[in-house]
Amino acid sequence: WQILSNVIGFTYFLAWSLSFYPQIFLNRQRKTTRGLSVDFCVLNVLGYICYTVYTTNFYWNESVIDAYKDKNSGGSSMVGDDTGENNSNEKGQITVQGNDVAFAIHALVMASFTLGQVGVYDSFKARPPSRRVYLFLFATGAFCTLYLLSTRILQGQINVLGFLYVLGTIKIIITIAKYIPQALLNRSRRSTVGWNVYNVILDLTGGVLSLLQLVGDCADMGDW
To answer: What is the pTM of this model?
Structure first.
């Protein structure tokens, strides 16, 4: 199973990485982002900011790694989601790999580039994010700030590990909700012109394979 798991991991890693390009090429070909939800683009960038901070800290920040090991020693858990490797670990060992970090940074760059195309081809003045997204951004920023201040006051220091868990939770929420604005836009326009279907197909393929790997790994380890 380990070999098959790694093959599945590499496949969904590739599918997720490639999923950004069809929309970018379509926008460039049409010289417009009409049909692409600005709210989706903004949420996508925020989600990958959270994921990049989360992943890079678990890979490079020794204090975070030590805190995680202390917290989880003696047990087993999974770290990471949008990766191409089996991230199972034992006794608090973090197995975030370089490709996990590479994907996170690549995804952030591509998502930011797509959002930038809105400004280049249509301008944010003509196509601004909705008030709902502005409200979500404000609420997210306020909650993160409040969390950092409260842990600094109550614990005498900032709980970086806990903050990374907060960012991970925000990323999950965004992953679940980010397609809703695009679906509503498609419905209001009665059209999907401007929205590349291969983006959805590749993203869905990656998600299904990721879930398959997770279930298989849990079954293989006998850890549900």
So the answer is: 0.83
